[in-house]
Amino acid sequence: MKMIEGHAAYPKRRKLLTKRLFRNHDTQVLPGRSAVCQVLPLPAPPPPSSLALPLVPMLASLRKAGSLARAASAGQRRFLSIHEYQSVNLLNAYGIPTPKSIAAKTPEEAFEIAKQFGSTGCVIKAQVLAGGRGKGHFDNGLQGGVHIVESPEQAKDYASKMIGAKLITKQTGAGGRVCNAVMLAERRDPSHEYYVAVLNDRNIGGPVLVASAQGGMNIEEVAAKDPAAIITTPIDFEKGLDKADAVALAKKLGFKSEGAQNEAADIFIRLYNIFKDKDATQIEINPLGETSDGHVLCMDAKFGFDDNADFRQKDIFALRDITQEEPSEVEAQKYNLNFIKLDGSVGCLVNGAGLAMATMDVLALHGGNPANFLDVGGGATPETVKKAFEIIVSDPKVKSIFINIFGGIMRCDYIAEGVINAAKELSLQVPLIVRLKGTKESEAKEMIRKSGLKIIPFDDLDEAAENAAKLAV
Length: 473
Fold this sequence. Notes:
This protein is α+β, with helices and mostly antiparallel strands.
């Protein structure tokens, strides 16, 4: 196999997939433990004093967490995201103040809800799991996913154009995401906007509260241009944030009155309580607003949750909205298939995440463009392999399929049986390139030979990848 240097053929996609598959967990890996990671105790965090740290990478990781929520690992979701109205409900449940906000799933509901806001009107926001909603546009021509509403009739009109339509933003891609609900929120104009987030920081070895007096804007840009504007406060995992430290942080941020400082401090403490209680991976409030009458409100919220905790966070994971996810990935999760849809023309079926990544790299080296990442895992059966094929061939962009299996735990004959059954039942028309090595290899090759199907076998990985790339042109 030829040496691959730097993954130059598709560095952005490779980097994205690496982030999606291997999360930024605070674990230490013992030397020689390539297959199994042993988690060791992390060092105790520094004292909870405010520190200004170089946070651009950490904040960028925080921002990407939501957008990478669809990533799969062992068929599971990564970093579950919830809608804004759901985030508001969670904040309120912990006693954290927000502008009055109510969700509507029909134009008629929006009309009735808008009546509750009186003459001051309200703001209507499309509930789509993507950033940049205000600057986005709907597939029916409506510009913007956030609008000021002056009357119940106007709320109904906007809701009728938003609900059921797809909102396209800088984060959704050209296809957009369907809007199934809108949120009507009380209009509150803050006199000053702050930024606050709770997340895990590997450098500190524990949770931190990240805050800035420069809220209401892109926090990564703030961190890059003015690092001193970012204040990071380590939090003791067990004890949480101390009230005195929280008040000191509020003063440092510039909250004016003693009442506002105490309100902000209480919000900081309760945000961490949610973070810990609900197994969150991120909580981001931008902006945290200080009103002219001296009160503090969370004006916008973004949450992410660790899918590994879904067994004990049933209430949170019941909020999952699969309409915001790629349908093929949702279908793959039902069969414990580790699947991520890409935009290429070579369908890939591999066992093992590492081999799958390497297979994609070799394809790229030979000019191919993967249509998906698909790791069937070590426990795949002929039935799951058939389902994997169904998902791959459902993509009209796929022009060839490359199967690369190393039979360690996985038996090659199981793969061969699944491939043969799928090829027959699905009347497969695209070229099928197969490379099988390891357990039951000879039996699998014999099964393929006797099948009479047009399956092209290879032993050499480079040759297989090169042919898969050529046949996809």
